[in-house]
Amino acid sequence: RYLFENMNEMTDTEIRVDVEAMIKQFEPRVKTHEVIVQSNLETLEVNVTVKFGILNVSEDESLEINLYRAR
pTM, whole model, 2 decimals? Predict the structure, then answer.
């Protein structure tokens, strides 16, 4: 969806909102604490970090994904 969009703060916000909505919809066993989206205009990459907790588990987890366009 965002492959051909201009990368800016608005795009980062839209990606963050979409990630939060998808986690809520498709993974109800997870409580999302924070989703951080950072665009790198020089390398045309988007770094997404999700900090979350699994329900009934005391330890929090973190997942980091780097998205980039394959050439």
Answer: 0.86
